[in-house]
Each structure stands twice: as structure tokens, then as C-alpha cells.
Amino acid sequence: MENLGNWLRTAREARGISLQDVEAVTRIRTRYLEALETGDYGAMPGGEPQVRGFLRRYATFLGLPPEEAIARYEHEAYGERAEAVPAIPADRQPAPSPGIAIAPSPWRGLQVIAVVGVVALLILGGGWLLVRSGLFAGQGATPAPVAATEAVPTSTERVPTPDAGTETITSPQATPTFPIAASGGITITLEPLEHVWVRVTADGFTAFEGMLSPGSPQSWVAEELAVVETGNGAGLIVVVNGQPQGPLCGRGEVCARGWGPEGELEVLPPSPSTATTEGESP
What we know:
Among the domains are: 4-78, 434 Repressor (Amino-terminal Domain) (Orthogonal Bundle); 186-280. It has helices at residues 4-14, 19-26, 30-38, 47-62, 66-78, 107-132, 272-280; strands at 157-160, 166-169, 186-192, 196-202, 205-212, 218-222, 226-230, 236-240, 243-247, 255-260, 263-265. The chain is 33% helix and 21% strand. The strands form three sheets. It has a five-stranded antiparallel sheet with strand order 5-4-7-10-11. The chain has a four-stranded antiparallel sheet with strand order 6-3-8-9, with no helix packed on it. It is α+β, with helices and mostly antiparallel strands and 282 residues long. Helix 4 crosses helix 5 (66-78). Strand 4 (196-202) and strand 5 form a beta hairpin.
């Protein structure tokens, strides 16, 4: 099988186009295109999801089957898959070697009888002790009080205390489950609670960078990786595949979070320009 990088470069050169021409259409940076053609997959900041997303986009642009590009990548990255060992037909199974039949030991039956007897004695002795202690006595027995089960608060409650005042009890919030889209991919919706600066990256290219205003939610779609960066995480509610995931992070906190088709992924921390841009915003 031809090397993946050579396969891509040959197809590009056959069309007479440069890496700069590819970047202008696919929005994939030239340095990442060079990394794909040289096999330097570690240069991708988004890791394997970004590699796969770029390969699909690049192969589609060149008119190559994207699934073949992924197959070539997996062949280079992981090598040949181990083939299953075929089962030996029944008619070719080796015949069992002849052996000597071992008669059952006469002591086995005695051992079983002894164990049953010991268990019976333990049961009888335990019942006699319970009767002597009065637990099974019918007269004068007072049933043990049953503690009432208190409902666990599901939200913030104010409970009165013996001293003057009240005590606030806050129950932990459940972590939202990640909804997996049946068709694959990721749909990110951002619901701004205040004016907040945001950068959204879809499959390695910048899909949006600017200010969002309250009451103006926006959505973006990615195939392999969607990353959201901001300088004020509490100003955004993130909705992934139609299910709210809560604020992006804390108030005034500079953060970046990413999601793939199977759930949240670890991404690189936001660039220094994120905090600077947020601080300069009105």
C-alpha cells in the first residue's frame, strides 16, 4: 500500500495546485497540510480527532475517498490488525489420549455428610441462643423503633437549627450525560448570558471568533472535534447535541473545552490572546 503522505501529495500535484491553494478552500493551515503529507501527525494540537477530520476534508477536496484515507492512516499508525485464528474442524480435532479411569473415593460421601451435620448443628445452636436472649419471645417484646427515612434534598434548602437562624444545605448537582448523535458528529450551541468573547474551532479551523450577545444563541457543527474558548466561562451555557451541559467554566475564568462524537476530549489550554481579547471587550 502506498504511503498516505505520498498518496495525498501525488493527487495534489496531479491537479497542479499548491498547499496555499488547498488552504484557501479547505481552511486547513499549510503547516498542517505539510504534516499530513509527511506523516508528522504529532504536529496536530487536537490529537487524533483533528488528524481524522483534516484527512477527511483534504481527501474530499482532492477527489479521493475519505474512508480510504482513514484506512491508510490507521494502517500507518497502528499496523496490521491481527487476523482471527481459524477454528480447527471437529473431524480434525486430536483424539483424546487414553488414560486410566479413576474410581470415586469412598471418603467423598463421608465428607459431604460431615459438612451437612456441622451446618445443622450451627443452625440449631444459633436458634437456641436467640430464644434464650428473648428476641423471639412473644410476650413483653418491644419492637425496635424504625428510623424514618429522610428525603435527600435535591436542591438548596434552608433547614431550621436548634439555635436561632437557619442552615443552608446545598445538594450536589448531577453531571449531565453526554448525548451521542445517531448520525455522528457534534453540534455545539452557545447561549450567551452576557456579552462575551468566544472562539469556536470546528475540525481544526476557526468557525467563529468574536462577541456574542445575550439572547442570541448560535450553533456550529463538526465531524471530529469542536473546541470552544472564552475569557469568561460563566457567561456561556453550552448545549451539545441538543442537551445543556451547563456553563463553560467559572466567572472570569479563561478556559477551553472540546467535544468529539463520543464525549468531551482534553484540549490544549487557550492561547494568551484569549484573555487579552476578553479583557479589552466592553
